[in-house]
Amino acid sequence: MSCPNNQSSYLRELAAKKKDFMAYESTEVMTWCSGCGDYGIQKALERALVLEGIKPHETLLCFDIGCNGNGADKINGYTLHGLHGRVVSVAAGACLANPKIKVIAEGGDGGTFSEGINHLVHSVRSNYPMVFILHNNENYGLTIGQASALTRKGQAMNGTPDGVVLQPMNTCQFVLGLNPTFVARGFSSDVKHMTEIIRAGLRHKGFAFIEIMQLCPTFNKVTSAKWFWDRVRYTDQQKNYDPTNLKRAREASEDLEKEIMLGVLYQDKSRPSFPELFESRKGITTSLSEEVRPYSIKELIKNLK
After folding, report:
1. CB under 8 Å to 54, separation ≥6 — which residues?
2. Residues paired with 25 in a beta bridge
3. What would the pLDDT profile of 179-196 be if each residue is shown by its tens digit?
4. Which is nearest to 14 in space by CA: 47, 62, 58?
């Protein structure tokens, strides 16, 4: 089952901005495994940035440690690596320091839902104005296939050869329980649909959480491309689906086995982002990064005597 939206208009839009894509193209050799979902995610991100008219110098791309992090030098622009599981906090600092650039963070299921889950919780709670793309391949791929908190129960992995004994976390259900403002889910083999939900995330003024259910043909052979294509469904195809209805979003995101719902599951456009909450910043047009300059502390020292 493919994404239901109009394909021809999408292709025309891409063709019209062909030259803009070259600005993001890197000459570095791709090092992901053959068939890895990271290829599709990277291409969808490039397309979303170009179609939204965002130039390489107008964005900061933050990568976690892991397979997703191998994309840091495969795309032109300002990029940086965070510590494992901590990329969300690095990106949060960047978007608060300079809200004039679009900040995007990417992380894997291992680091995000183990080492870094506390950072994710408070980033959602704070509604930082940034996009976070979760690469969910259901394992620690870079360290050769250990189970993560999202690996399916019963699945044999390196480190758990007899199968995982715990139920996996449902990422969207988890985030929807944190009073978020934007939650979406995509699939790494559907580049067009990923492009559309990333574009929606880029337009959102708060914290946009986007889970990408990703293929890992090297270490996760259970959930293949066919396995997903037989199960994915789209919110666009659901009768009267309302992305402003939190209860409906929780219901739609619950099934991870038979009918996996993709699309913008939930969005609240009314909530202010974190920087908008401070009365002391009202009317100030400069960013914090622009306000960094030498300050004299002579008077302060004098008063301390």
Report:
1. 102, 202
2. 75
3. 999 999 999 999 999 999
4. 47
pLDDT at 275: 93
Task: Copy the structure tokens of residue 289.
Answer: 């990064």
**Domains along the chain with CATH numbers:** 7-24+32-304 (3.40.50.970)
- What would the pLDDT profile of 145-189 be if each residue is shown by its tens digit? 999 999 999 999 998 999 999 999 999 999 999 999 999 999 999
Q: Is the pLDDT assigned to residue 5 strictly greater than 80?
A: no
Task: Please give the structure tokens belonging to residue 147.
Answer: 């189970």
Does the global pTM surpass 0.90? yes
Phi, psi of 168 (to 5 degrees): -75, 155
> DSSP strand E in 23-70: where?
59-63
What six digits make up the tokens of 301? 């020292």
Residue type, 75: I
**Tell me: the pLDDT tens digits for 264-290?**
999 999 999 999 999 999 999 999 999
Whole-angstrom distance, CA of residue 257 vs CA of residue 222: 12
Residue with tokens 């791309």: 61
Residue 47: closest CA among 24, 79, 78: 24
Torsional sign, CA 117, 123, 124, 125: positive
101 secondary structure, DSSP code = S
Task: List phi, psi (to 5°) of 220.
Answer: -125, 85
What's the alpha-carbon Rg for the chain, to the nearest Å? 20
How far apart are alpha carbons 172 and 266 in whole angstroms? 10
